[in-house]
Description:
- Helices cover 7% and strands 36% of the residues.
- The N and C termini lie far apart (61 Å).
- The chain has three helices and 21 strands.
- The protein is mainly beta.
- It has helices at residues 47-53, 170-179, 323-328; strands at 7-8, 36-38, 63-64, 68-77, 83-93, 109-110, 122-125, 130-132, 137-140, 146-154, 183-191, 198-199, 203-206, 212-221, 228-232, 243-248, 261-270, 275-283, 294-303, 333-334, 338-343.
- Strands 1, 2, 4, 6, 8 and 9 form a six-stranded antiparallel β-sheet that branches.
- 37% of the residues are buried.
- It has two domains: 7-191, Immunoglobulin-like (Sandwich), CATH 2.60.40.10; 198-343, no CATH class.
Amino acid sequence: MSQYDDLFFRVSTSDTGDRNFGHESTDTIAYQSPDIIPYGTRPTTNPVQFFAGNYGSDVGQNLVESADNYIYLRARNLAGEARSGSVSLYAVPANLLLYPYLWAGNELQTSDKNVDNGALNVIQAGSGQIAVTDNPFVWRAPTPDHYCLVSRVSNATHPNPVPTAALGDMNALTEFILDNPGFGWRNVTIVDANKPDYTTKGIGFEQGTEDAMVTFDIKCVNVPAGASVAFSAGTPGPSPLIDLGETTVPQTSPDQNGNYNWHTGIDCLVRANYKTTIDYSYWSHGLAPLPGMTITLRVLPFVAADHRLYGRLFTPEQLGLSPERCAALAGKRGIVLGSHTTVFR
């Protein structure tokens, strides 16, 4: 094999897919692929355009411990025609020699839980173009350490199966890496800088059979001022994405029961049959929780005055939303249709 002719993951930004063995660039190092892209704890808007646009750069970031980290893949199509392929991503603790048996059983998921993807997480691009995942992989990175991520793209022309027979020596591993540009390799570092104190473990959400404008609201009761919260889901579809970045809880006045209440949220147009998992996180920033502290993620569909259920629903004010949220939803009515609460003791 000399010039590869399909979707491929580079070993460096200068890699063109030339596998003229013995004459490759001196920076052909397996574990530095710029096409496996850990890109922080928030999903990226328009990832296909964004990551194709910076193809000449390695924009990967460190992963954050105990947080949902969103990881994207991209691959250039070196075929003379349009190609598509199903993508997978694996993680393994640091090991100098990454024999497939070490990582084959640890496939990462997307927010909508496409394990092994079922041919659902597909990238595609025209000849010479860049294919990018719009449905990122999500990894709750464990304790600070070094890991390796392994990517795979598979199609009918190059199935790129994960070896089932043991690669028992360095020669076999060398041949596997050199002969399979449909696999990518990247060393990553997990850091504890600004890690959240708490993150939920995947809260399911299924839209149902109709489009709707949905408010995703996070309600903080007795959360100390100066702490912060966030929530997100990586599955594409809603406009905008379900993504509230880390937001500081302000100082509020107590209600008649002595509790400190604060809300914030976002409004998303969610299409029919959309499903994902959503997680919310809490950062204490060294502040002690107040007695009775809870954090609740709520789902509130809102409708306009011409909707058949409008007269049976509640104003934003009645639902206790903030003045800013009430102004954004003026003239509409909604209901708390579902929620998830964490009690802090």
